[in-house]
Write a structure and sequence with these properties.
This protein has 442 residues and is α/β, with parallel strands linked by helices. It is 47% helix and 11% strand. It contains 20 helices and eleven strands. The chain has an eight-stranded parallel beta sheet with strand order 1-9-8-6-5-4-3-2. Strands 7-11-10 form a three-stranded antiparallel beta sheet, with no helix packed on it. Helix 15 links the parallel strand 8 and strand 9. Helix 7 crosses helix 8, helix 8 runs parallel beside helix 11 and helix 10 runs parallel beside helix 19. The longest helix has 29 residues. It is globular, with a radius of gyration of 24 Å.
Length: 442
């Protein structure tokens, strides 16, 4: 049985989209960071002179325009809002205190976290972020116990700094392999044919059990266990803490953050809807939990007692500075690191990050059965048009068979091209350079 999916693979040449046109605009911070020393000194001298001139001009304007009794009138005008000013004045100090607290909790020099890419994590990228002074992270989606142990061993060989291991918590709606497997597999037959693989037979299971993954994680003893799609049980939190492992949860709404705080996690990632990959909502449907980073972070910071880590739409120093102004004590960055040569992304995936404008990324269930943000390539369009999407994790397992082959062949039109709305700001190819750019915003 097929459901009318037709795949046309075409190579595109020389097409300039909105993101490429935007890329011609200089980013002042990056331009300054990449300039040589002589340019920096000349710019600094010129800037000092301009600043001094503006200051003299302000003083002259102030003396010329200040009316008699102006200070008294100003005080009267400010009296009704003085309490607001006094409340706001303490925010920078509290943010700095929180940053120090988060660094101590995570054991890092800088409160910058690597997004844990399920299926796209790499040893080299995780180690690079940890070695730079942040918290590297490795996504363990679909990993069984043996693979988790070998991955952790490889990470320890690559870095002696703290790192996080990330798992997806079961939500209770995950389907098991059954008779419907064959129906949904046949619906994707054109994709298997396009990459030269057979339609996959029904497996014994789509995912390893949570107990199997946790057993391996306890053996691996990472510095941090991060979780998505739910609240870790009291037993998980207690066991992690007993072993000296910190627990970080992920929230897409204030209500989810409050639930995580009550469960005793050590920090909370507030993931705005701009972020790449899966929307990890768990209290309400993901489509009903789409809150942007600017709205989410300050509300979460006001509602919880633990440090908040902002995620979504952060790709350079400006995003970091904005996150801290909103009350975050750290940031998690995905797409900007995914574009680097150290990530496990294919060249086609990096090209998609480079070419996809902010408004061109989409939220889709086509590739996994759960809502996720990425580029709308031909696979996404064809699967959505067919109207045949298996529930999670069946759809993710089924598409994974042709996506893996497509990755080996660098066929971006048949991969999951996860990327966030800040993709046009992801301009650096090296993970250390990305990290240095982010640190400049602290």
């Amino acid at each position: 049985m097929t459901c009318g999916i037709r795949i046309v693979l075409r190579q595109q040449h020389g097409t300039a989209d909105g993101a490429q046109r935007m890329r011609g605009r200089a980013l002042p911070g990056l331009q300054y960071a990449e300039g040589d020393g002589d340019d920096e000194r000349r710019d600094g001298e010129q800037g000092d002179g301009e600043a001094e001139g503006r200051e003299i001009q302000r003083r002259e304007i102030g003396h010329a325009c200040e009316p008699e009794g102006g200070q008294h009138e100003l005080h009267e005008l400010l009296d009704p809002v003085r309490h607001v000013i006094e409340d706001i004045s303490g925010l920078p100090g509290r943010s700095l205190d929180g940053m120090s607290e988060l660094r101590e909790i995570l054991g890092v020099r800088h409160p910058i976290l690597l997004g844990a890419f399920g299926g796209l994590s790499s040893i080299s990228l995780t180690a690079a972020v940890s070695d730079a002074g942040g918290l590297g992270a490795y996504g363990l989606y679909g990993y069984d116990g043996e693979r988790i142990r070998s991955t952790a061993a490889a990470l320890r060989e690559a870095t002696d700094r703290p790192f996080a291991l990330n798992i997806w918590l079961p939500m209770g709606d995950e389907v098991e392999p059954g008779p419907q497997h064959t129906v949904f597999a046949q619906a994707l037959e054109p994709f298997y044919e396009a990459v030269g693989v057979d339609v996959p037979a029904r497996p014994e299971r789509y995912l390893p059990s949570l107990d199997e993954q946790l057993g391996a994680i306890w053996d691996a003893a990472p510095a941090v266990l991060s979780v998505v799609f739910g609240v870790p049980s009291a037993e998980i939190v207690e066991e992690a803490h007993r072993r000296g492992i910190r627990v970080v949860g992920t929230a897409t709404t204030v209500e989810e953050a409050v639930a995580l705080d009550a469960a005793g996690v050590d920090a909370i990632i507030a993931s705005g809807s701009e972020a790449a990959g899966h929307r990890v909502s768990f209290l309400r449907p993901a489509a009903d939990s789409l809150v942007g980073t600017f709205a989410l972070v300050p509300q979460v910071a006001d509602a919880v007692s633990v440090p908040v880590i902002a995620a979504g739409g952060i790709a350079d120093r400006r995003g970091v500075a904005a996150a801290f102004a909103l009350g975050a004590q750290g940031v998690q960055v995905g797409t900007a690191f995914l574009r680097t040569t150290q990530s496990a992304a294919t060249d086609a995936h990096r090209a998609a990050i480079n070419q996809t404008a902010a408004g061109e990324s989409v939220l889709t269930r086509a590739m996994s059965g759960r809502l996720a943000r990425g580029a709308r390539n031909r696979a996404v369009r064809a699967i959505e048009a067919s109207g045949t999407i298996a529930p999670f994790p069946m759809q993710n397992w089924l598409t994974g068979k042709f996506r893996a082959a497509a990755g080996e062949q660098n066929l971006g039109e048949l991969q999951s091209l996860w990327l966030g709305q800040a993709a046009p700001l992801a301009r650096l190819d090296d993970a250390t350079a990305v990290f240095d750019e982010l640190v400049a915003g602290l």
